[in-house]
Write a structure and sequence with these properties.
Chain lengths: ~375, ~375
């Protein structure tokens, strides 16, 4: 291949998206709900959004869809994982402010309703509710033949936390320890590039994976017998981190040796890869000195697409789906607590104070803006 | 025209939709959140969904989209009303269980982001937040070129109410008085049929409306000068009933002469038209003896499409977007309270006990299932 592939050449214009969203936000005025009343917006130092007041508590909403991973699921007729993906994208975001997810609603848009597809989605959402430990509190199926050409799935999750206990990033400081939680696969970001690479490589999703998909800290959710197919690896559902993170938050708010104040930041590694860390603080930096092992599908994608290493880390999770920044004195305690519940969890680096940037053990992998 | 038009011939298969949704719901197991914990589902006698426990309160979620009304807005490049439509579809649903809407999140799916469209959506959502008196607590814009061919917009609203004060339909009884609230237009349902009729009639949305759109209890939101265009009538934003219904609920929970127990049922007239009333109770009936005046666009649509009257009332709101069923002894008090805040509000009928059906002053308009 002459030119290395990247996310922009896969048809996603991140700058255009950013300016479209800025236009939308720019048009919004302040909330009409006064401070202290239910629904009043909460301004957090870290600039996190989505939190509102509710008496002695805060409520948090997160809304997101599965994106172009859906197109692969649809082409294979395999929707068993997409409900889990949809749930994960939302509840994992809620965890980042220290909220416990409690309820979820789904929105399904289809050109034409198909009971078989809906049964598969229902089963997937039911499993997702179990993993995230939330109630499915409603949903909507819209038939929009003029607007969608195939299934779109999105959802909204609701979470809560006690007032004054939000994780805002304001306690982050140099020397904080970064704990990485392992990913189960590509999760739900970067699929425009995945599809472009796969098309270029001429691999079929129904073929056996063109690499050994074994990895100690994830299992594949299979729908075939025998050798794992490429499609099963690519569609492996996004990991939901409620277990163990909600339990860690509750333990920290209870009588564990560590406290909620020792958890300084939580980051969900989504589109933008490691550069997501820069959203947690305006000046501090992030040194990833001992990264989690890279999942084999990322190695294959990089090779097959001739993608630069830095671009890989800016697009994909590369094997780490969530990062906690914790007080160094409590890092071992929390690490052990987490490792017992999620094997593969490890210390991956520290918070630094020599510039607002992410650095990485791999040379050339450095980010100074999200 | 040889054959009268109806909703099914416009390409919407309600039975197929129902069976698809049933498949999805059938696959869902019970919630994993135990009774008494935040997020535990609340089973209401009337079978309403979406309510969850939260300490001394209940929280309610509603999720819905704008549907094919969006295609008309997109074809005209006029998105100023669709944020209001999206908000209305959700918050009006929350009012039906007696919840006060407090927050909203939007989900936008586009083939490609366009800052101008997003600025228009942002302005529309900002106005919607004011009308519904909620905080915009987040949102997501997804670029899905392979899945959507034009803008899709949906959203989720969050509301709350004190435990024990949900409006469930369990207090409904024969003789309850029905109070109708006027609609502002077609609202956000039945647009597949609207588009089919308009296409058949050969009317352009940019032409002056082929009828007098004046109506005492609604005003058109205009983007042209001079004579109102057909498009302005068809796209007139859905009425948001938070003001006056939230105030009525608060007044009833406070020291008004009427109490919350006097409000026995609230119905949002959406797809399915008057048959929505049947969802409120399993055995009682609904006699609409003095309907609100029909909006002129419905009269035109019926004529232009040769649509049967019964089909019109099963597809459109026909001029009444919300119905309250109240204790007869308090009906005059509540009517006067509402009329002062929303002119055009009137008593439209009573709850009956001779079969689970809706009857209407217009002969032939009768429904026995939703």
């Amino acid at each position: 291949m002459d030119e290395p592939m990247d996310y922009a050449s896969a048809g996603v214009d991140i700058d255009l998206e950013g300016s479209a969203v800025a236009s939308l936000i720019g048009a919004l005025s302040r909330s009409v709900r006064p401070a202290g009343s239910p629904g009043a917006p909460v301004d957090l130092p870290g600039g996190f959004g989505g939190l509102i007041e509710f008496g002695e508590n805060l409520l948090a909403l997160a809304t997101d869809g599965v994106g172009s991973k859906l197109s692969i699921a649809t082409s294979l007729g395999q929707w068993g994982g997409v409900g889990i993906d949809c749930m994960a994208m939302n509840v994992n975001d809620l965890l980042c402010v220290g909220a416990e997810p409690i309820a979820f609603v789904d929105y399904v848009a289809v050109p034409k309703p198909d009971p078989a597809v809906h049964a598969a989605l229902g089963a997937s959402l039911a499993e997702a509710c179990k993993r995230a430990r939330v109630t499915l509190a409603g949903g909507e199926t819209a038939s929009l033949p003029g607007i969608v050409t195939e299934l779109d799935l999105s959802g909204t999750a609701l979470g809560w936390l006690p007032k004054g206990e939000a994780i805002t990033g304001e306690n982050l400081k140099e020397g904080d320890v970064l704990i990485g939680l392992p990913a189960s696969g590509i999760h739900s970001n970067g699929y425009s590039l995945v599809r472009k690479i796969v098309e270029h490589a001429g691999v079929e999703y129904t073929d056996p994976a063109p690499f050994d998909p074994e990895h100690p800290h994830r299992s594949l959710e299979r729908w075939t017998e025998g050798e794992a197919t490429f499609g099963e690896v690519v569609l492996n559902p996004t990991r939901i981190y409620c277990d163990p993170v909600v339990d860690l938050l509750n333990e920290a708010r209870g009588d564990a040796s560590f406290s909620i104040k020792d958890i300084h930041g939580i980051c969900h590694i989504t589109g933008g890869g490691l550069s997501n860390l820069l959203r947690l603080h305006e000046t501090l930096g992030w040194a990833i000195t001992s990264p989690l092992p890279v999942l084999p599908e990322f190695q294959w994608l990089q090779r097959a697409g001739g993608v630069e290493t830095r671009e890989m880390y800016r697009t994909f999770n590369m094997g780490m789906g969530m990062v906690l920044a914790v007080e160094s004195r409590q890092a071992t305690n929390m690490l052990n607590w987490l490792k017992e519940r999620m094997p593969g969890t490890a210390v991956v680096g520290t918070v630094t104070n020599d510039g607002h940037k992410v650095t990485h053990a791999t040379e050339g992998v450095e980010f100074s803006h999200y």
